[in-house]
Design goal:
By secondary structure, the protein is mainly beta. The chain folds into three domains: 49-129, Immunoglobulin-like (Sandwich); 135-237 and 398-405, Sandwich (Immunoglobulin-like), CATH 2.60.40.3710; 240-372, L,D-transpeptidase catalytic domain-like (Beta Barrel). It has six helices and 29 strands. It has helices at 10-28, 39-42, 168-173, 348-357, 374-379, 391-396, and strands spanning 49-51, 63-67, 70-78, 87-89, 95-98, 107-115, 121-129, 141-144, 150-151, 157-161, 175-179, 184-191, 194-199, 208-214, 219-221, 224-225, 229-236, 240-245, 250-255, 258-259, 263-264, 277-280, 283-291, 308-316, 323-326, 344-346, 363-367, 404-405, 407-408. Strands 18, 19, 20, 21, 22 and 27 form a six-stranded mixed sheet that branches. Strands 8-10-13-12-28 form a five-stranded antiparallel sheet. It has a five-stranded mixed sheet with strand order 9-17-14-11-29. A hairpin with a 2-residue loop joins strand 12 (184-191) and strand 13 (194-199). The longest helix has 19 residues, at 10-28. The N and C termini lie far apart (77 Å).
């Protein structure tokens, strides 16, 4: 029975119900039969709805379609941050396609306006979570310096990957450099597992630097993806530059451009000459055991070049084994002759002073020796890889072949 709310005369209500029934029969058209008088319900159009793929891939752009209608507008944003996933509705309104893949593991909120086949619009919301990167496909890395470090003015930023990076440009494009003092610098790929950053000139003292590696979802190679964002902040300390003259047998330490002393030293003897060039301090140890065998000089105890010593106040300049260190045994030659196996020798007192003031990224410049730095530059030794080639050569080893100007970094007011 058809019931019309507020009807007083049953006869009128019956007439209205009959009229509706007849109208429904006429709309069937062409004499088509409808069972049980249900023709009106069977011809009803379903409401439009979004169709979001499941699972949502992080490897390809997202495509969302609509069922039983079309898309008038749509926005996709990360839950909690509001960061928009860029994309657009196609000209026919049949789908929305992002211009980049979504971030792995992130949840996104969807706000859309759908249009029915009759042209009526309706708002709708939804959400989805993107698939995560499998553990065996995740790019892993370490960064140096460490968070919160105070570094020297020559300090390179060093990123070492556990796997080979074949898409260097995609990886490098995700890096963001910021500093309180604007600096022009460049990334420089030493090899497919290691990339450095240094400024064109030394870092300005007192500068705070922030590094952001937005690698989450960045493809680094076949079946290799960045799986997170890395951040690092450090401060540039006073300028410590030591000038070593192999001909004069002197080491002159300077602080912020002023010489604080001139110390006698002894460098590598002719057959083990210390390399000319600009070194950076890599690390330091209060005491180390040094042997000619580990230095690949000789393991024969009868060889005159054999040694096995415990050495104090060791400041490492190269991975290959160049140090500035205390050498009480060569004090008689310091200031007069080069007698070491390649290291820079100082007295115990001077060695301790140099050790105490040294930090990662301090600079040591050796001149007037007979040996170039070519082999260690070619091998990518971190102590010499960054400051012994021209700036144009350094930039040329960037995957993007371009300099970087750091973005402004605001300092917190306390």
């Amino acid at each position: 029975m058809w019931v019309v709310r507020g009807a007083r005369r049953p006869g009128v209500a019956l007439s209205a119900a009959l009229a509706v029934t007849l109208l429904a029969a006429c709309q069937a058209g062409n004499g088509a039969a409808t069972a049980g008088g249900g023709g009106a319900n069977q011809s009803a159009t379903p409401a439009p709805s979004l169709v979001i793929p499941s699972p949502v891939s992080f490897q390809t752009p997202l495509k969302v379609t609509v069922d039983s209608g079309s898309l008038a507008a749509m926005q996709v944003s990360q839950h909690g941050t509001g960061t928009t996933l860029p994309g657009a509705v196609d000209t026919g309104g049949t789908a929305w396609v992002s211009s980049m893949p979504p971030v792995p593991g992130e949840t996104y909120d969807v706000v859309a306006t759908l249009r029915s086949t009759q042209g009526k619009t309706q708002p709708t919301t939804s959400s989805f979570t993107v698939a995560t990167i499998p553990t065996d496909q995740r790019l892993r890395l370490t960064m140096y310096p460490n968070e919160g470090d105070v570094v020297g003015v020559g300090a390179p930023i060093v990123i070492r990957f556990d796997q080979k990076v074949t898409d260097r440009a995609a990886v490098e494009s995700s890096f963001l450099m910021s500093s309180t003092t604007p600096v022009v610098g460049s990334w420089h790929w030493v090899n497919d597992r290691e990339v450095h950053f240094r400024p064109e000139q030394y870092w300005p003292t007192g500068t705070k630097v922030a590094v952001r590696l937005g690698l989450n979802g960045v493809q680094a190679g076949p079946d290799l993806w960045g799986a997170r964002t890395y951040e690092l902040g450090f401060t540039v300390g006073d300028s410590h530059i030591a000038y070593v003259d192999a001909a004069k047998h002197t080491l002159t330490p300077t602080v912020n451009g002023k010489a604080i002393a001139v110390w006698p030293t002894s460098l590598g003897r002719p057959e083990f000459a210390t390399r000319n060039g600009t070194y950076v301090v890599l690390s330091k140890d209060r005491s180390l055991r040094m042997t000619s065998c580990s230095a690949q000089i000789t393991c024969d105890k009868n060889n005159p070049n054999y040694y096995d010593l415990t050495v104090d106040f060791d400041v490492r300049l190269t991975w290959s084994g160049t140090f500035v260190h205390s050498a009480p045994w060569s004090v008689g030659n310091q200031g007069f002759a080069n007698v070491s196996h390649g290291c820079v020798n100082l007295s115990a007192a001077h060695g301790q002073i140099f050790f105490d003031q040294s930090r990662y990224g301090d600079v040591v410049i050796v001149k007037n020796s007979s040996r170039p730095a070519t082999d260690l530059v070619r091998s990518g030794d971190p102590g010499m890889a960054d400051w012994n080639i021209s700036w144009s050569q350094y930039v040329a080893a960037s995957a993007l072949k371009q300099e970087v100007t750091t973005t402004p970094l605001a300092t917190q007011q306390g």
